[in-house]
Design goal:
Two copies of one chain form a homodimer. Chain A is of the alpha/beta class. Chain A is built from 13 helices and twelve strands. Chain A has two domains: about 130 residues, Aspartate Aminotransferase, domain 1 (Alpha-Beta Complex), CATH 3.90.1150.10; about 220 residues, Aspartate Aminotransferase, domain 2. Chains A and B meet through helix 1, helix 2, helix 3, helix 5 and helix 6 of A and helix 1, helix 2, helix 3, helix 5 and helix 6 of B.
C-alpha cells in the first residue's frame, strides 16, 4: 500500500485523532448518572450483553481502515493473501492451513456443514449457541451434554456419546467456555484427542484465548499438524475489538482447511476488516490494554458480587456469569430500564446472568445499579 | 446515529474530502504513459478485470464509514435492522422478504445449498461462475447450457432439461449475463416462471440491474409475492462501488427468505458495509454518476473496437466482451505487462476478452494499448 499524497495522509491523521472521541463519548452518555435517577434514553444503553471489547477499534485499525477506503470498491483478494500470510507467520503454519471467515461464526458454520448430514454434533450445555443452531437448522443431530462440576466440559460423558454414535461425530469445545467463562483443562482435551478415532472431529473454539491464563490451559493448535480431525477457531472480535468488522479464522491441517473451504462463501472477509486485522495483529500494545481494562473490570465486578454475596464463576474471559435472585427476565428488563444491557438467558443456567466487562466507568454504573437492586430486594 | 461533537464532524469532513484523492491518484499511476514505453510497476496495474466500479466509494459511504467507526467493536444487529428496513421500503416488500448476504455471492451460496443435495442446477455457459462452483464443490449436479444466438439464455433448452430432471431443479439466470453483458428478454423469463412447476426454483441474479435498459428488460421481482420459488439477487458491489465491503441481498417471498436464511452465516454483513449501504441507497446522484462514467467508458471502448474491427457484444453492464485475435493467455499476459488487468478466461468463449469499464483516463490507456497491439499484429 503506497500512501497517496497529502490528502490521504491528513485523512489518516484525522482517523488516528479519533481515539479521544471514544473517551469523549462517555460523559455524553451520562455514565456517571446515579442508577436511581431517570433511566438513560433507550437509544444509548451501556452494552454489557455481547462480550464486546469496550475499547473500540484500535488506532492502528482505524488508520488502516482510513488508508484502505480508496480500495473498498475493489474485490479484496490481495488483502486476503496478506492477512493469511500474516496469520500463518503468527501461528507458524503454512498459508493453506488458515481458513478465513466472516467472523469466526462463519467458520463454525463451515465446521458444522463439513461434518455432513449424518453427523452427530456433541456440545456442552450451556455453551456458545452457534454450533448447535447451525446444526439444528439443517437437521443435523445435536447431543447436549451438561457441564461437569466446576463448569468444565464433561469430557467423559461426551466421549461416551461419541463412542456410541453411528457415523461421523463433531465435538465442539468452546475453551474457555461461553457463557460460563470457565476452562476445561487442556490436558484432558489432549487425552481425548490423542485416543479418538478418525471419525471424531474436534472444533476447539478459542475465541477468548488471549484472556485465559494459568498452567492448565493451552491452545489445541499443537494437534493440527498431525491430526486433520482437529480445527482451532479464533476471532478478531474480542481481543482486537472488531466484532462489527466480522473477521475470524480456523487453523488446521491442510486437509482440514480444504474440507472447510468447500463451505466458505467467496471473498468472505471484507477489505476493511482485512486491513484492520492486519494492523491489529501487529498491535501488542492494544492487546495489552484490552487485557488491562478487562482485569480492572473483572476486579470491580468480583468486589461487588462478593459484597452482595452473589455467587459468580471466576472468569478466564471478558465476561462473568453470576447468580441473581429472582426471575431472570425481570432482572434483564430492570437493567434495561436503567440503561444497561446484560446477557441473554442461557438455559439451563437461568439463575445466572452473564455480564460483559465494560470500561471502568461502565462497570461503576453497573455495580451501582446492582447494589441499588439489592437495596430494593430485587437480587 | 447522533453526531458526536466537533472531532467526529471534522473526521467526517476529512472523509468527504477524500473524493479528490481518487482523481489525484490517476496521474500518480502514470495513466497517460504511452503503452509502448516501459510497463508500469506490477504493484499498481489498472484493474479492468473484475467489473468493479472505478469511481471508488461515494462520499456518502465514506462519511457513513467514518461515522460508524466508533461502533465497529459492536455486533451490528441494529445496523442490519436499519438496512433491511430501507431495502424493504426501496423494493416495497416486508422486511422478512429481504435476506442479507456477505456480498451477493453468499446469497448465491445459500441458494445452492437450499436447493438440496439431490437438486439439478441449470446454468448458462458461460455465466457467472459462483453458482456452478458452489454446487460442484458440494457434489450437486450441474447442467451447463450454451447461450443461444444473440448470447441470450437458451431458455427452451434449459426448460427441457428441467422437465426431464428427477427431483428439485434450481435455475440460475444471470440477467444481464456476466461475462457477456447481454440481456435475456424478461418476457421469455416470465413465460417460463409462469408455467414452471413448484419443484423448479429460479434465482435471478440482477447484479447489473441498474446498468441495463431498454423495453425488453425488467426485474423478476414481480413474481416474488406469488411465487416462493423465485428469488431475486442484488448487490452493492457494482452501482454503489462497494465490492470490497461485501454486501448483497435476496428479495423473495417470506417462505423463500426463510429457506435461504437456514444457510446464512450469523451477522453476515459487516457494520461498516451496512452503514455504507444505507448511505448509498439514498445517494441517487452517485448512482447517476456511475452510469454516466460507464456510458462514457462504453462509448470509448466501442469506438476503439469498431475502429479495429474487433467484434464486441453491446453491453447492458459495466463491461464489454470483445473478440481478440490470437491466444487469450498471451493477450492477458501482454496487457498485464502494459500495466492493465483484463478479465479471466471464460470458456468456451476463449476468442473473447472481457474488459471492465474504468475511468475515462483508464479507458484511454486501455484503448491506446489495444491499438498498439494491433500495430504489432497481436490482436
Amino acid at each position: 500500500m503506497e500512501r497517496r499524497g497529502f490528502l490521504q495522509t491528513s485523512f489518516a491523521v484525522a482517523a488516528a485523532g479519533l481515539a479521544p472521541v471514544t473517551a469523549l463519548r462517555l460523559p455524553r452518555r451520562r455514565l456517571m448518572r446515579r442508577p436511581d435517577t431517570a433511566p438513560v434514553p433507550a437509544k444509548s444503553p451501556i452494552r454489557l450483553s455481547s462480550n464486546e471489547n469496550p475499547l473500540g477499534l484500535s488506532d492502528a485499525a482505524r488508520t488502516a481502515i482510513a488508508e484502505g477506503l480508496d480500495e473498498a470498491n475493489r474485490y479484496p483478494g490481495e488483502w486476503r493473501r496478506r492477512l493469511v500470510a500474516a496469520l500463518a507467520t503468527k501461528h507458524q503454519v503454512k498459508p493453506e492451513q488458515i481458513v478465513l471467515g466472516n467472523g469466526s461464526t462463519e467458520v463454525l458454520q463451515m465446521v458444522v456443514q463439513s461434518a455432513g448430514a449424518d453427523a452427530t454434533v456433541i456440545v456442552a450445555d450451556p455453551t456458545f449457541e452457534d454450533v448447535p443452531r447451525y446444526a439444528e437448522r439443517i437437521g443435523v443431530r445435536v447431543e447436549k451434554v451438561p457441564l461437569a462440576s466446576g463448569y468444565t466440559h464433561d469430557l467423559t460423558r461426551m466421549q461416551d456419546i461419541a463412542a456410541r454414535a453411528a457415523g461421523p461425530v463433531l465435538v465442539y469445545l468452546c475453551n474457555p467456555n461461553n457463557p460460563t467463562g470457565t476452562l476445561t483443562p487442556a490436558a484432558d482435551v489432549d487425552r481425548w484427542i490423542a485416543s479418538a478415532p478418525e471419525r471424531v472431529t474436534f472444533a476447539v473454539d478459542e475465541a477468548y484465548f488471549e484472556y485465559a491464563s494459568g498452567p492448565s490451559y493451552w491452545s489445541a493448535q499443537k494437534w493440527i499438524e498431525t491430526h486433520p480431525n482437529v480445527m482451532v477457531v479464533r476471532t478478531f472480535s474480542k481481543i482486537y475489538a472488531m466484532a462489527g468488522m466480522r473477521l475470524g479464522y480456523a487453523i488446521g491441517h491442510p486437509a482440514a482447511a480444504e474440507r472447510l473451504e468447500r463451505f466458505s462463501a467467496g471473498n468472505n472477509a471484507n477489505q476493511l476488516a482485512l486491513a484492520a486485522g492486519l494492523a491489529s495483529l501487529g498491535d501488542d500494545a492494544f492487546a495489552q490494554k484490552s487485557l488491562a481494562v478487562n482485569r480492572e473490570g473483572l476486579q470491580a465486578l468480583y468486589r461487588c458480587l462478593e459484597e452482595l454475596d452473589l455467587e459468580y464463576l471466576p472468569s478466564q474471559t471478558n465476561f462473568v456469569m453470576h447468580r441473581i435472585h429472582g426471575d431472570l427476565a425481570t432482572y434483564n428488563a430492570r437493567m434495561r430500564e436503567h440503561g444497561i444491557l446484560v446477557g441473554r438467558p442461557f438455559p439451563p443456567m437461568l439463575a445466572f446472568s452473564r455480564v460483559s466487562v465494560g470500561l471502568p466507568e461502565e462497570m461503576r454504573v453497573f455495580t451501582e445499579a446492582l447494589r441499588s437492586f439489592r437495596q430494593q430486594g430485587w437480587v
